[in-house]
């Protein structure tokens, strides 16, 4: 009986560790970023004649790099996470995983993703590597604890997957690739600033400067509106240049109007519930946009 009990305890412990590693990658965020890379690649190719070997290699290498940078960020932010109610139960602050385990995991994922990227294509590899460097070094290590403007570089790193996919598809950096990158950069404030309003107390406890704490909530909400409008304009121009038309373009235009409309409502009638819905709507908008881009060609 004791042997069976110890065996079951060991099994449960192993699965708890595996789940903790999975949580460490922020899988929902990482999958959304991966979808943007898929959309970037499909925007440059005919999805009916896709080179599936290249596409699968791109998705694999990109996902490893995205997860690697995310895990390294979790290692860097472990002292911040333990001070916030929202993040205190993450694998590192809760002690489920050690810093060494997480660091080795993050480095292995990053090295595998970057290495695979360069084997696939040189320019594609440099874009993926740049995204990881900006995310981990520029955003997390250098700027996150110093200025709320760090989200600009967070957005830039978040836009690298879609640029990387586009680069792999066309073989160079073009106007459409830049516009798609810019759409992600401009979208990030809708996603992040709404979050920072809702969890302002948590960020203040952790000593992380945010737009609401530095510039005030009203200014932050105004920035969200401006960001939403600019994102919408940029996305419409980008999909027009890609060749989106008909029902696909109508669906994109409807998504844009819905996002702008709800953002305006949140500005004039703010509430925690609406902020949560705007956060989810922004993610849904990005997912729908990437899906429409992917099936256009």
The proportion of strand residues reads under 5%
Distance between the termini: 61 Å
Number of helices: 13
What is the number of beta strands?
Answer: 0
Largest sheet: none
- The helix content is over 70%
The rough form would be described as: globular
Broad structural category: mainly alpha
Radius of gyration, whole Å: 20 Å
pLDDT averaged over residues: 92
pLDDT under 50 segments (min length 5)? none
H-E order: HHHHHHHHHHHHH
Topology:
Blueprint: H1 2-24, H2 27-42, H3 52-76, H4 78-81, H5 99-120, H6 122-143, H7 150-170, H8 175-198, H9 200-206, H10 211-215, H11 217-242, H12 246-268, H13 272-294
Helix pairs in contact: 2-3, 2-7, 2-13, 3-5, 3-6, 5-6, 6-7, 7-8, 8-11, 8-13, 11-12, 12-13
């Amino acid at each position: 009986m004791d042997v069976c009990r110890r065996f079951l305890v060991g099994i449960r412990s192993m699965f708890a560790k595996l789940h903790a590693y999975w949580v460490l990658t922020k899988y929902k965020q990482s999958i959304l970023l991966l979808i943007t890379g898929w959309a970037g690649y499909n925007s440059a190719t005919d999805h009916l004649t896709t080179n599936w070997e290249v596409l699968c290699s791109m998705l694999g290498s990109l996902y490893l790099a995205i997860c690697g940078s995310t895990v390294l960020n979790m290692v860097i932010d472990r002292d911040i996470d333990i001070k916030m109610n929202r993040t205190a139960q993450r694998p590192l602050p809760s002690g489920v995983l050690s810093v060494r385990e997480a660091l080795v995991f993050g480095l292995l994922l990053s090295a595998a993703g970057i290495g695979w990227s360069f084997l696939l294509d040189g320019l594609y590899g440099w874009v993926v590597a740049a995204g990881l460097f900006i995310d981990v070094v520029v955003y997390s290590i250098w700027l996150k604890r110093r200025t709320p403007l760090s989200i600009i570089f967070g957005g830039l790193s978040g836009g690298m997957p879609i640029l990387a996919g586009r680069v792999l598809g066309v073989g160079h950096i073009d106007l459409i690739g830049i516009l798609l990158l810019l759409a992600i950069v401009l979208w990030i404030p809708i996603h992040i600033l709404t979050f920072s309003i809702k969890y302002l107390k948590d960020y203040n406890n952790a000593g992380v400067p945010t737009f609401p704490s530095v510039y005030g909530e009203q200014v932050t909400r105004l920035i969200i509106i401006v960001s939403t409008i600019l994102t919408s304009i940029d996305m419409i121009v980008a999909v027009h240049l890609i060749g989106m038309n008909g029902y696909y373009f109508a669906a994109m235009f409807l998504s844009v109007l819905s996002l702008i409309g709800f953002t305006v409502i949140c500005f004039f009638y703010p509430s925690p519930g609406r902020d949560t819905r705007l956060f989810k709507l922004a993610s849904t908008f990005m997912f729908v946009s990437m899906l429409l881009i992917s099936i256009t060609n």
